[in-house]
Amino acid sequence: MIKESEALNEFRTIRKNLPEYLKKINKPVMGYFETYVPEEIIYAAGMHPLRISPNNRQIAVGGSKIESFACSVSINFLDQLLNGTLAFLKGVIFSRYCDSLRAIADIWQENTDDSFYHFIPYPTISTKESINFLSDELKKLADHISNYFNIKINDAMLTEAIRISNKKRLTVLKFYDLIKNGKIAINSADFFSVISLATIMDSGEYTQKLEQLMKQMELTGDRPIENSIKVAISGIMLESTQFFEIVDKTGMRMVTDDLMFGSRAFKGLVIKTKEGPYHAISKRYLSKIPCSVKGNIDLRIDELIKDCKEADVKGVIFYLVTFCDSEECEFPILRKRLQAEGIPVIGLEGGYRVNSEGQFLTRLEAFAEQIGEEL
Ligand code: SF4
């Protein structure tokens, strides 16, 4: 048993009752769907940036508006937009990410009346020109928000928003380091709960709670799950608590990740540039460890290998959301590179929700047995 931390219990409760938490946010809420939309600009406008995550409701309306070969995550997002679940949002911001989300953006634009909608035409590569281009586009986003809501966004507000986001990033990265170095032992389901909330909760509140959690857990000195089999989990939009619970049931434990809303969302700070805050934000987001929908697969894999070695993981679990083309293309390359480094990999595929626990459990138990032999 891990000694219970008050802060950890609070994170668990928020994750389990997300709609309740969202109801209590006392700022206008702006939604986005992936971590390339800069939260700093939304903060600077005095709004709450909320990364929308797939929910557990049965798909109803969304499925009839889009081809069935769209991934289940995007269909769920569309469903939430159309069925009123996201009616509390003041607006949504999309960026050029994957084809499925591009389609969702178009369908939503067609179906929405006068609620705020913005699409950021994102470059895929990071060059001097693309950074300047995105910087201009981010300024257009800020102007759009300013004009639509009659809010002023100046450089000082943006600089303060950058400070808050950077502080959160540093705190999250410290949390990853403590787990990687064995100073904190936390099971996969709790690790997932804590990390997935970083782009959902208020940043100031989140950072404070995470600092509290680190202090409480470091102090316990009670880490009986240290001997579980350490693994990394790789993927893009794997947002199922149940999946992480299955991993825990097999005796494996996630000690690092390569997920869109996980480590990839926090590595790299916004560093001041002489061209101003929009340029600094643009540079940071275009230099991020890329998701598979962007370029430079080597950067992602090199980083994953580095993390695996630092955390001394015994294997990598890769989760593919069915019909996520970019992940499907990257997986064989990722597996080959990891195996060349002597890191075993298992590839699993399914929806954003786990419908058949038995099948995953059996395969993961076999994987745990295989990599556990080397302990
Ligand atoms: S899982 Fe893949 S295809 Fe689906 S929304 Fe995410 S990136 Fe796009």
Contiguous helical run count:
16
Helix/strand order, N-terminal first: HHEHEHHEHEHHHHEHEHHHEHEH
- The shape, in one word, is globular
Number of strands: 8
Query: What ligand species are in this complex?
Result: iron/sulfur cluster
Helices and strands: which structural class? alpha/beta
Number of domains: 2
Q: Residue ranges: pLDDT <50 for 5 or more in a row?
A: none
CATH topology of the largest domain: Rossmann fold
Major sheet summary line:
4 strands, parallel
What distance separates the N and C termini? 21 Å
Q: Which percent bin holds the helix content?
A: 40-55%
Q: Give the percentage of residues in beta strands.
A: 5-15%
Average the pLDDT over all residues and give the rounded result: 92
Which CATH architecture of the largest domain? 3-Layer(aba) Sandwich
* Rg calc: 20 Å
Q: Strand order, biggest sheet?
A: 2-1-3-4
Summarize the SSE layout with pairings.
Blueprint: H1 6-16, H2 18-23, E1 29-32, H3 39-44, E2 48-51, H4 62-65, H5 72-82, E3 91-95, H6 99-111, E4 116-120, H7 128-149, H8 155-180, H9 188-196, H10 203-220, E5 229-234, H11 241-249, E6 252-258, H12 263-266, H13 277-286, H14 297-311, E7 315-321, H15 325-340, E8 345-350, H16 357-372
Parallel strand pairs: 1-2, 1-3, 3-4, 5-6, 5-7, 7-8
Helix pairs in contact: 1-9, 1-10, 5-6, 7-13, 8-10, 9-11, 11-16
Bound molecules: iron/sulfur cluster.
